[in-house]
Amino acid sequence: MATYDETVENRTTQEVTVPPKATRRVLSPSYKARILKEYDSCPQGQKGELLRREGLFSSQIT
């Protein structure tokens, strides 16, 4: 069994990789217009379903 010092030493010598920074999702004007039109035509209970399906937040619509 490894001692505490050996365990700490092994952890600090391992390579750490950092994933690249995520990029923002860019939405085309035609996509935005289509989603906004569809959102406005949805009954109150189905607006959330549309947002979830498209991976959007309500703040992106208003």
TrEMBL record:
Name the record gives this protein: Transposase
Native organism: Ferrithrix thermotolerans DSM 19514
